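User: tokens in, sequence out, please.
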């Protein structure tokens, strides 16, 4: 069975409340905190209001690309359980984790086997290693077979243009699954019907 589910790129209260009140809630919800190139990016004031709620035992994740000290200081008291870090070296990751007493998801972007082994630099620092594509907000794919030699005992997550109908193929994989673009309509907005389908499907696996 899959180890958990993360729905990423939530940016409005209606969708967030729907997920939090669903019979089969995901284990994590992600919010794009400082990457303005993403259509899922949330301005600070809106983010602060959005996540200042009862999380109902769901972990909230701040998605950050190479965050500077200013944004980290700004969000340090928000209702987050994890920081998901892109483009942050091991020393900086350790510094962030220590200073803010926060759990860390390190995102390793993958296009080749050489990229995959970078996880070893973070395995003693990060709570979860996320293997994602190089596309960032573009929901691009990568060859998941490149992860075959990643240890089963490590807490790991996989992203990169995963579709709802792909979920059953992860039944016997020891991964958490991270979806975003697959849950959106043609205008890039989260689609409640797709989210419902995903949550019900995952509950059966």
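Assistant: Sequence out:
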């Amino acid at each position: 069975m899959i180890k958990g589910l993360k729905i990423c790129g939530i940016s409005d209260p209606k969708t967030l409340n729907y997920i939090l009140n669903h019979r089969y809630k995901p284990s994590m919800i992600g919010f794009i905190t400082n990457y303005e190139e993403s259509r899922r990016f949330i301005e600070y004031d809106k983010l602060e209001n959005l996540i200042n709620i009862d999380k109902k035992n769901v972990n909230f994740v701040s998605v950050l690309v190479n965050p500077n000290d200013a944004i980290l200081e700004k969000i340090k008291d928000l209702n987050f359980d994890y920081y998901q870090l892109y483009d942050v070296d091991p020393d900086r990751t350790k510094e962030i984790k220590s200073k803010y007493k926060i759990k860390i998801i390190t995102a390793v972007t993958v296009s080749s086997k050489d990229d995959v082994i970078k996880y070893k630099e973070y395995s003693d620092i990060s709570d979860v290693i996320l293997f994602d594509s190089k596309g960032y907000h573009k929901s691009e794919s990568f060859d998941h077979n490149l992860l075959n030699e990643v240890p089963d005992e490590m807490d790991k997550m996989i992203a990169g243009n995963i579709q709802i109908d792909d979920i059953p193929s992860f039944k016997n994989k020891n991964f958490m699954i991270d979806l975003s673009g697959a849950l959106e309509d043609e205008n890039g907005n989260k689609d409640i019907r797709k989210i419902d389908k995903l949550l019900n499907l995952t509950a059966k696996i």
